[in-house]
Amino acid sequence: HNRTIIHLDIDCFYAQVEMAKNSSLRNKPVGIRQKHIIVTSNYPARERGVGKLIPLTKALEKCPDLIVINGEDLTEYREVSFKVTDYLKKFSTKVHRLGFDENYIDVTELVQCRLNQFQGRLFVGYLYQNSNTVKAQACDCNCRLRMIIGSQIAAEMRQGLWNVFSLTSSGGIAHNKMLSKIVSGLHKPNLQTAIYPEDTLDLLHSLELRKIAGIGSATNNKLQSVGITTVKELSTLPLAVLKTHFPTPQACTLFQWCKGIDDSDVVAATKPKSIGVEDSFSRCCTMIASKKRISDLIRHLLSRLVDGCEHPQTVKLTIIKHDRSSYKRESKQCSVPSTFYSTKDTDKKCSIILDLMMNLLRKLVDIHKPFRLRLFGVTFTNFKDK
Ligand SMILES: [Mg+2]
Ligand SMILES: [Zn+2]
């Protein structure tokens, strides 16, 4: 148990960014809207029954005085999110962003430094309590001390995020990533929880499968179909049995996770080489219909330009013509003009790319003759560093 990993999750992130800007919102119910959905709400709103991802009309029925803020432009949230990560890098070079509002920080080195000058202070925040009367034996690798120091560092980080950005966060401290994320969800908001390695199985055995990050609905459904609903049940399955239900790498991961083993390193996610979307259909025969389909693709694609991929330099259009003899993909690409970067307006970004795509389409298809297409794809590549 030589590592110390902290998982930090900013509480109701979009809502808090708004509250940080306007402190009069703090004690009022606030919901962040995208289209007709409330995507995040602050805790006063949650107390009034306005949870995450509920329709706007339903939210207003439950809480007529809900303050609704349009959160469709992510620019500001993205900026705050990267500033938070930069701040956390003061504690360690190993920081892994998970979406806009979560970070894993490997503080092993910092803990090691402080271990030498340890003053015997105690935990900050909660410690996960083993509910069994028969306690697991304390490990003698010094990991208990590392968790105590880790909890002190997590408290400093959270205090810092409050002082600098007026953001509260919830934290988890453990000896691996998987556990740190699980325990950070045990006490929220604005609280933190640590766990001793020896209490790992006790915690895991109390959980439903979905509490483990990485077990998504597809994996969960598959396990349910073979009668596995809890982590405890999963841990009884031999690896060979798991391999009959899942591809080998996934079977091995599940086999380890349910025993609390996660050797994955905290490393920054690497930037993808390209981000693209495709849509196939039986026929598309007019420029008007093509424009509509391509426009929808672009809108969807723009929402995926996050985490250092905001500045693609190249955009590519792919098509498949309806042709009984072949399903050949054809594509053409062009560079993205600087006007795309300078505007923050999503509609404008969309129309800039749409114009480029329609030009490329005219090069791929002779529009003066009848045509029939069965697929469009739009792909951004060649991402520029900030
Ligand atoms: Mg969060
Ligand atoms: Zn240990």
TrEMBL record:
Sequence ranges assigned to domain UmuC in this UniProt record: 5-216
Molecular function as annotated in GO: damaged DNA binding; DNA-directed DNA polymerase activity
Cited PROSITE patterns: UMUC
Record-level GO BP terms: DNA repair; translesion synthesis
Keywords: DNA synthesis
Sequence similarity: Belongs to the DNA polymerase type-Y family.
Protein name (database record): UmuC domain-containing protein
